[in-house]
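Predicting holo structure, zinc ion bound.
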Amino acid sequence: MKAGHEQKSLCEYNTNKELIVRLKHGADLIQSITELARNRGIEAGSFTAIGALQRARLGYYDQKNHEYREIKIDSPHEMASCVGNISLKDGEPFVHAHAVLADETGGTRGGHLSGGIVFAAEVHLRQLEGPRLEREYDEATGLSLWDVE
Ligand code: ZN
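Done. Tokens:
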């Protein structure tokens, strides 16, 4: 790596469309956004979502063993924050999301959002136009990361 640790891993995109979506009660948030991306041909994008989940599965990535540990959230929580992006994995739209979930005391748990059953969810999705954004296996992390050079 060059001096200053400057990486050239950057791509430029233009915003194509901004979508406002209300997800269905009882649907899975990740699946719903993946389907939306597939149906509308969205290959690159970013989104935020707020609302509430009936239950969820969070992930914590074990950096030493290169595997996700599952954190089960089996009770209703506020989706205090959810941010994510859409790119391509094996040529298909792939949703990557993280969430901070709050319980009745306001206490929070957070992490990689593997799945979440929607109580109510408002999504603001930004569709991006630009170079193909594909994920590729990364040796150092064991994750599928953006292949941007
Ligand atoms: Zn993640």
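The chain has a mean pLDDT of 95.
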